[in-house]
Amino acid sequence: MTRVRSAVAIVVALMATIPVFAAAEHQVFFVVRHAERAATNDPNATHRMMADDPPLSAAGQARAARLATMLASAGIGQIYTTEFQRARQTAAPLADKLKITPVMAAAKDPAPLVRQLQQAKGNVLVVGHANTIPDLLKKLGVKDTVTIADDQYDDLFVVIRRVGEPPTLIRLKY
Question: pTM value?
Answer without folding.
Answer: 0.84
